Amino acid sequence: MTIFRTKGYDNSPYMEWRLAWWDSAECAKTDRDVQDCFFPDPEEDSKEVVKRKELIAQMICASCVVQDQCLLFALDTNERYGVWGMHTQADRRELKRWMTRHPDRASYHWDRSFAKIRQRIESALNTEATQGIAVAAIQFRDGFVEDETLVVGRP
């Protein structure tokens, strides 16, 4: 797997081609309030709310057909914030570290990273405190997500 380096966002045909996947992304189809889950603000939200928002974003990403392109874009552009391709900032940092240390096993680490996040989502859904988030992620297309400690969307 080759990770191409770009210098930020520009208007080149290359960048237009690189962003062609965006229209197919599940996050692009969500309500604006739900999109905020993809970029939680640790300065405004508590750690618990940030984790819940990231979990909602990861659940939405889990059903997305362009996960690989999204994550590759985030890695290419050194995106430091938000959930991209089902990976939080910490997940991307870890993946990048493993792929740099073991470039001959890049595809293994790529697949392992996705599997690890899916397992984390499944584990979180099995706890009582986060069961409401599953409903929230399923209902994101309806324009609202509501949870007892996190309300995102229209009243």
Structure description:
The chain has helices at residues 13-18, 32-35, 47-62, 67-76, 89-101, 106-125, 131-138; strands spanning 144-146, 151-153. With 155 residues, it is mostly helical. The protein has one domain (13-153). A hairpin with a 4-residue loop joins β1 (144-146) and β2 (151-153). α3 (47-62) crosses α6. The longest helix is centred in the last third of the chain and has 20 residues, at 106-125. It is globular, with a radius of gyration of 16 Å.
Features:
155 residues; mainly alpha; two-stranded antiparallel ribbon; 7 helices; globular; disordered N terminus
Question: What's the helix and strand layout?
Answer:
Blueprint: H1 13-18, H2 32-35, H3 47-62, H4 67-76, H5 89-101, H6 106-125, H7 131-138, E1 144-146, E2 151-153
Antiparallel strand pairs: 1-2
Number of strands: 2
Number of domains: 1
Mean residue pLDDT? 76
Q: Specify the overall morphology.
A: globular
Stretches where pLDDT is under 50 for at least 5 consecutive residues are 1-9, 140-155
**What integer value in Å does the Rg equal?**
16 Å
What structural class results from the helix and strand content? Answer: mainly alpha
What fraction strand?
under 5%
Strand arrangement within the widest β-sheet reads: 1-2
Give the CA-CA distance, first to last residue.
Answer: 45 Å
Largest sheet: 2 strands, antiparallel
Helix content: 40-55%
Q: State the helix count.
A: 7
Q: What is the H/E order?
A: HHHHHHHEE
